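Thread amino acids onto this structure.
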């Protein structure tokens, strides 16, 4: 059966939760997706599902975040913010893993981010997986994660060449990520 990738609809919510719960062997990611939908920055076009025969077998979410850099002048602290987007989470039902479905979701999701005008993407994930999509360690640009993850697992991708030049600081995730 053919694989269809499309933006989520409200009728997909239970299937998305199930995919996330099964893919990660626990309910945290499914709850994260549910909570992020309630955040005013949620972009429905960037929550994609993959289905086969009408059944949701995979899901990916891209969510806006900011890189907050601190610049101190003689008088006071100034913060500059750069908007980017985070890829998290991507989940595939266990019986459909290692078939390229996650990769197709990532590629289509990155294209959707480009079309919506995002210039870069941040991901905290497997350092042996994401580089095949063009991700590089975010430290290359002086971008840090707030969680203390291993450097090689925190990566960035420029969707527009030079987009991250001069952008450095710590990624600030929405509060919903703290609950996971």
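Threaded sequence (180 positions):
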């Amino acid at each position: 059966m053919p694989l269809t990738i499309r933006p989520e609809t409200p009728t997909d919510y239970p299937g998305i939760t199930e995919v996330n719960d099964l893919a990660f062997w626990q309910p945290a990611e499914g709850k994260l997706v549910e909570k992020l939908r309630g955040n005013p920055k949620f972009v429905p076009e960037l929550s994609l599902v993959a289905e086969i025969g009408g059944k949701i077998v995979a899901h990916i979410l891209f969510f806006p975040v900011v890189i907050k850099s601190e610049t101190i002048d003689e008088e006071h602290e100034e913060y500059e913010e750069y908007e980017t987007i985070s890829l998290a989470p991507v989940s595939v039902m266990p019986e459909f893993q290692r078939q390229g479905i996650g990769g197709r979701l990532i590629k289509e999701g990155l294209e959707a981010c480009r079309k919506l005008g995002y210039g870069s993407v941040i991901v905290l994930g497997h350092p042996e997986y994401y580089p095949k999509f063009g991700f590089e360690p975010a430290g290359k640009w002086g971008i840090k994660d707030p969680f203390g993850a291993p450097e090689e697992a925190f990566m960035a991708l420029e969707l527009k060449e030079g987009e991250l030049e001069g952008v450095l600081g710590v990624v600030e995730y929405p509060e919903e990520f703290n609950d996971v």
